[in-house]
Amino acid sequence: MKKQELLALQKLSTGVGHFIRYWGFRKIHGEIWSIVYLAKEPVSGNEIGKLLNVSKALVSPAIKELEAEGLIKQTKSENSKTKRYQAEEGLTEIIHGVLKRREKPMIDKIQKSHLELSREISDNGSLNSDRLQQMGLMIQMAQIGLSSLLAENILNE
Description:
Blueprint (H helix, E strand, L loop, with lengths): L2 H19 L5 H12 L4 E2 H8 L3 H13 L3 E4 L8 E4 L3 H30 L8 H22 L1 H4 L2
Antiparallel strand pairs: 1-3, 2-3
Helix pairs in contact: 1-2, 2-4, 3-4, 5-6
């Protein structure tokens, strides 16, 4: 790989790493996923570490976590000692799964807590009931937005 191409790949991977942190993953997950996703051929953990200029100790557990999330998979390699990885193809299905598995239960839990507080709040208490109602509307908007993202017809277009 040419030096300019490597630097551009590292810059993109770092950007994806920063972005993916907002989803609750670590930066290294986004960096590794970028390398694996863009590679023409399956890559090894050692190659990933060299491309990102990070240690094997950082790469190995992150690879296992990405495998567990269904973002990458191990493929056959030239020998039994070297593990090679490639990205899963169905990216929208993977995002759908992550949103359904992680974000939906989180928003549902917040909604449940909001409803419980709404039942308990009193007009004489120290909480602002108007703001609690506004918060409820924000939670509903988040649920509607997530539901629309999870709708099969939207993800498959």
